Amino acid sequence: MYLANVFGVALISILFSAALRSPLAEASLEDYVRAFSLSTAVSGGLAIAAFGCISRIREREGCAE
What we know:
This protein has helices spanning 2-20, 29-64. By secondary structure, it is mainly alpha-helical. The chain has one domain (2-64). The longest helix is centred in the C-terminal third of the chain and has 36 residues, at 29-64. The protein is elongated and about 55 Å long.
């Protein structure tokens, strides 16, 4: 579980840095807003995907009983 969290934080950090498109000291407010919006949307998408996976697992376990 901890390993998955580490990879998740690393992925979102890399995505945020790539979306910033400039060094931290030179980035404008608009750059930060864009990067934050993109990383938040990706985090939401990953949360929805995880919910879908958990729901499918529970359905399969319920059918097996």
